[in-house]
Backbone:
């Protein structure tokens, strides 16, 4: 598998040209699948490289092929110089003898939900990175606000940092913006807000706060996609009415982290599918 082209090999008795090169355009991937069908191929081994295998994997899976996703580290023991043609032939030989292990790959319907969830994780990670950069810029100006409040992304930090960006430099006025429940005294907070105000670092603060403010809105827009995805591929199971014997037993709720979604994904999936997917994903089709 490659970025510009894929090399495929079948047994010599299946085609007069058993090794072929296919480009990575979608039309060429369908042509590759057609060639496999014409050669009577039932199983295909793909050597995973980056993300180049994903489009072809999806097409072959839709066509009904049994696809083996093979770790490239398990097939690199071919001595001498290796060309793409030799690589495909070597992969064919190993697969013919049953020497390749198939990597664990969830069903396509589960991969849909995983893509949404991973995208949301990127937003959460991006927000944490913004907070770290804000703290770094404050430290470079010797603004020790992070040492007197527990979290710059809390209420106090979200009031004081934008005020600094807006041009406020009086430590006493900035300290008055702190939340009453902050354990540090106003004098201590004001003392931490005395530093070297550098214009380039103020600009960095402004950029990071703008990015941080945009991430929550993006995350909220993802909520419908995450909650509706399971309903598209599993039969809907209505919520049991009160007093019904079929009602699911209540589960103990854990303390929510502020970055966690505002709903319990495992409970939502079990309500829709009737199966606890955290125990066995393969039982989703039985719901």
Residues:
């Amino acid at each position: 598998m490659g970025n510009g082209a894929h090399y495929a090999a079948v047994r010599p008795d299946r085609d007069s040209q058993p090794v072929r090169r296919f480009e990575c355009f979608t039309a060429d991937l369908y042509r590759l699948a057609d060639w496999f069908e014409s050669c009577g191929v039932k199983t295909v081994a793909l050597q995973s490289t980056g993300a180049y295998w994903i489009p072809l994997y999806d097409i072959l899976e839709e066509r009904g092929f049994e696809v083996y996703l093979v770790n490239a580290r398990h097939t690199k023991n071919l001595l001498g110089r290796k060309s793409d043609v030799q690589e495909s032939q070597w992969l064919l030989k190993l697969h013919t003898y049953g020497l390749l292990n198939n990597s664990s790959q969830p069903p396509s319907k589960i991969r849909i939900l995983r893509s949404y969830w991973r995208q949301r994780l990127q937003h959460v990670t991006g927000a944490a990175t913004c907070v770290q950069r804000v703290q770094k810029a404050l430290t470079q100006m010797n603004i020790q606000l992070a040492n007197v409040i527990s979290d710059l992304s809390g209420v106090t930090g979200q009031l004081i940092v934008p005020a600094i960006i807006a041009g406020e430099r009086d430590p006493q006025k900035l300290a008055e913006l702190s939340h009453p429940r902050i354990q540090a005294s106003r004098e201590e907070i004001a003392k931490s807000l005395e530093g070297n105000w550098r214009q380039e670092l103020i600009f960095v603060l402004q950029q990071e706060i703008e990015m941080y403010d945009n991430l929550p809105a993006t995350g909220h827009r993802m909520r419908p996609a995450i909650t509706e995805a399971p309903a598209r591929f599993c039969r809907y199971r209505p919520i049991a009415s009160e007093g019904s014997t079929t009602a699911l037993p209540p589960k103990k709720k854990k303390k929510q982290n502020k970055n966690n979604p505002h709903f319990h994904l495992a409970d939502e999936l079990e309500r829709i599918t009737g199966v606890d997917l955290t125990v066995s994903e393969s039982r989703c089709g039985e719901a």
User: Anything to note?
Assistant: The chain has two domains: 5-105, 110-226. The chain has nine helices and four strands. The first strand starts at residue 5 and ends at 9. Residues 122 and 219 are 10 Å apart (CA to CA).
